[in-house]
Design goal:
Radius of gyration: 23 Å
Helix content: 40-55%
Strand content: 15-25%
Oligomer: single chain
Structural class: alpha+beta
Number of helices: 18
């Protein structure tokens, strides 16, 4: 009995010294799981945590490094085991199931009026589920065309700007013009084809997910949804202006061929500029161009990075205060520069550092007003739909294994069967 009591006492002592909760000296400790991964981003985030801790001795924040590769499954396990971090870094398209599952705190009454008013409503829509707000959207990135500037100048093609972008038809014609033996006008890195296809399809007026009066969501692959995938498929299979070998590649995988003069352009997330700056040959001249525009102009879907508070966090007000500090305009700029992304806050977006032509910052910032919630933002069951239905169907379509009609049947018929399980 004495041995068991001693063991219990030891466990209680260890629990009192663990991260999270309130310590014996009354100091609160909050665990903050960050998904920052680029060196500049990690340093900026750690520096901000250190600055908070230096000025808030009674509320200490413990930095925990997470990974984008496994965050959904890791968080689900942590939530179900009662071991979730207090402050959670994630992406808005990953929040729906966690919010509906009761794992995330409703931030509606916890955030300052200044923070709420500084971030546009269109961004708040990405983290709003029902009547609650379950995350603060703070970083976002448009998809852009990164181009070989020398190649484009020599070709004599019209260089697009945010004010006068290419249309999707013009983009297709230009990639054909830029192609030749062993060279391609564009390389589409579509290892993860779903978000790229859906988000760019907003420019053509695509929606794909339709919510009825009863709140149920159905998939309809209509004419506007088909513009972007049809353009890509024709560039690959008909025009031979898009490389077929990069369809299964990630964005980073295309960079050696881009630097080597094999591809004139690569559609990439805005943050890939950091890798290009690090890896490009010194004499390589590149520039950032806006993605093509359609019937809806430059509209483009995004799933911002988010900061949430776990429902099980015993110190939600203190956690919200930390979020308020982390997302002050000047701090949001530091995080954006560290991640080579754009802040959601309107005051942060006005910072001169985000409006320089160097490395294409001004082009990206000009696109911020056109960013909209990604089509799948509030769709329950989206991760399963994406992994089991949409990804394999789009991969087969882009490779030429199935036609547009088959793609439509797969996305609608099989996709609606998956989503129905989450809407009963």
């Amino acid at each position: 009995m004495r041995a068991r009591l001693s063991a219990l006492a030891l466990l209680l002592l260890l629990a009192g010294c663990s991260s999270g909760g309130t310590r014996d000296d009354g100091r609160i400790t909050l665990r903050f799981q960050s998904l920052a991964w680029q060196q500049e981003s990690v340093e900026a985030t750690r520096d901000l945590v250190a600055e908070w801790n230096a000025t808030h001795p009674d509320v200490r924040v413990e930095y925990v490094q997470g990974s984008w590769d496994s965050v959904h499954d890791q968080l689900l396990t942590a939530f179900e085991g009662g071991e979730a971090p207090d402050v959670i870094h994630d992406a808005s398209d990953d929040l729906a199931d966690f919010a509906h599952g009761g794992y995330l705190a409703d931030l509606t009454g916890l955030l300052s009026a200044g923070l709420k008013s500084d971030i546009p409503q269109r961004s708040w829509q990405t983290t709003t589920f029902g009547d609650g707000v379950y995350g603060v959207p703070f970083l976002q990135e448009p998809r852009v065309l990164v181009a070989n500037a020398t190649w484009l100048r020599k070709s004599g093609v019209r260089i697009p700007t945010p004010e006068k972008p290419w249309s999707w038809d013009e983009f297709r014609r230009i990639t054909g013009r830029l192609s030749g033996p062993g060279k391609y006008g564009v390389a589409w890195p579509l290892k993860e084809p779903v978000s790229a296809t859906l988000n760019l399809s907003l420019s053509a007026g695509g929606q794909l997910f339709h919510r009825g009066a009863d709140g149920r969501v159905t998939v309809r692959f209509e004419a506007a949804d088909q513009v972007v995938p049809r353009t890509i498929a024709r560039q690959v299979g008909t025009d031979r202006s898009a490389s077929p070998t990069t369809l299964g590649s990630g964005g980073s995988d295309t960079l050696p061929g881009f630097f080597g003069g094999r591809y004139a352009m690569v559609p990439l997330g805005f943050s890939y500029r950091q890798q290009i700056v690090q890896q490009a040959p010194k004499d390589f001249d590149w520039q950032v161009l806006p993605a093509p525009a359609g019937a809806a102009g430059l509209a483009q879907g995004v799933s911002p990075q988010t900061l949430s508070i776990a429902e099980d966090c015993p110190h939600k007000e203190e956690a919200a205060a930390f979020l308020g500090f982390l997302l002050r305009p000047e701090n949001m700029v530091r995080l954006a520069l560290g991640d080579w992304m754009l802040p959601t806050g309107t005051r942060a977006l006005r910072d001169p550092a985000l409006h320089t032509d160097r490395h294409g910052w001004a082009t990206g910032t000009a696109l911020a007003a056109h960013l909209r919630p990604a089509p799948a933002q509030t769709v329950r069951g989206y991760p399963e739909w994406k992994d089991k239905v949409a990804t394999p169907a789009l991969q087969e379509y882009y490779s030429g294994a199935i036609g547009l009609g088959d793609l439509r049947e797969r996305l609608e018929k099989d996709g609606n069967l998956v989503l129905a399980r989450y809407q009963r």
